[in-house]
Amino acid sequence: MSSLPASPESNRRVVPRKAVRQAATLVIGDATRQVQTWDLGRDGMCLLSPRPIAPGTRCKVTFDLPLATGPMRLAAGLKVVYSSYSASGDFKIGAVFTDLDEGVAIILAEFAAAP
């Protein structure tokens, strides 16, 4: 199984995603988990986690969006859509945003659409 992002030609997403590989913090209930971002867009994001997270789980993610003007700290609610095994101790977690401010959604859309 390849862990490379889908090529633009084979990407079936309606909303563009952009690869962003950096540390993020995920809070699930009372537990905090360090994860890594994989890609993100206006609608949601993919994360790499050392353990699976059940689809339907609601959580909160905090990460820095790397903008040309400097990093922008974002915190948003997520709902896990899928959790798939990628490699030993490595699970891809796909999630949609649940409480994203419209201004932040616009910033994410512009970020994901930029080359």
Which overall shape is indicated by the principal axes computed on the Cα atoms?
globular
CATH first level: Mainly Beta
Q: Assign the CATH architecture.
A: Beta Barrel
How many separate helices? Answer: 1
Strand percent estimate: over 45%
Helix content: 10-25%
Assembly classification: single chain
Mean pLDDT: 89
Structural domain count: 1
Strand numbers in spatial order across the main sheet = 2-3-4-7-6-5
Largest sheet: 6 strands, antiparallel, barrel
> How many DSSP-defined strands?
7
Distance between the termini: 27 Å
Word description of this protein:
This protein is mainly beta. The protein has one domain: predicted glycosyltransferase like domains (Thrombin, subunit H, Beta Barrel). About 10% of the residues lie in helices and about 55% in strands. The chain is built from one helix and seven strands, in the order E-E-E-E-E-E-E-H. The two termini are about 25 Å apart. The N terminus is likely disordered.
